[in-house]
Amino acid sequence: MNKYLNDLRWVLNNLLITELEDAVDLLSRARQGNRQIFIVGNGGSATTASHFACDLGKNLHTEGLPDFHVISLDNLCVLTAYANDEGYDNIYVKQISNLMKPGDVVIGISASGNSENICKAIKLARRLGAITVGFTGHNGGKLGKLVHLHLNAPSKDIKQIEDAHLVMTHMITRAME
Question: Which of 64, 93, 96, 149 has its CA 20 to 30 A from that of 9?
Fold first, then answer.
């Protein structure tokens, strides 16, 4: 347990704060412009996506500022319908093509950076004029190269990457308070 905590401390101490500040600026501009924010992830990253959407949408009501328009695309009925009919790699592509408008923000969360459904969604979002953000680990994988803003948790341990992603979303939310 001590090794895990020490390794996690190293990961957190090596986050790039300037990238997190860039995320705060990007999300603040989206908020001011009444842009929609879509967040996607798989497995543990899906729960981080849902948690981040909740924090932005519920906890950041500020008098004089518009509320966040944020959606985690994790509706179980929608996901399973698209997975069944269109294939799992398209569960987010189809939702984004139906909902997104140019200038919106699409955030993909993938510990490996190589989740095909996340990468496909980000590619489509960019083609449709979205600003894209990726939370990754390892070396960033494919996702790190696709997004406008890359937020990397510098670890190869998936559990520590997921821990760091949640901490990063909390840091962003706290900075926006």
Answer: 149
What burial class does residue 68 get, using C-beta atoms within 10 Å of its C-beta: 0-12 exposed, 13-18 middle, 19+ buried?
buried
**Position of tokens 């398209």?**
90
pLDDT in tens, 76-96: 999 999 999 999 999 999 999
Q: Which residues contact 6 (CB under 8 A, 6 or more apart)?
A: none
Question: Quick one: 174 exposed, middle or buried, by C-beta within 10 A (0-12, 13-18, 19+)?
Answer: exposed
Residue 9 identity (one-letter amino acid)? R
CA distances 122 to 64, 69, 157, Å, are 32, 19, 24
CB-count exposure of residue 92 (10 Å: 0-12, 13-18, 19+): buried
pTM, full prediction: 0.96
Does the domain at 22-176 match CATH 3.90.1170.40? Answer given as no
Distance, CA of 89 to CA of 122 (rounded, Å): 12
C-alpha to C-alpha distance for 144 and 132, rounded to whole angstroms: 10
3-state helix, strand and coil shares in percent for the chain, rounded to the nearest 5: 60, 15, 25
pLDDT tens per residue, range 145-158: 999 999 999 999 99
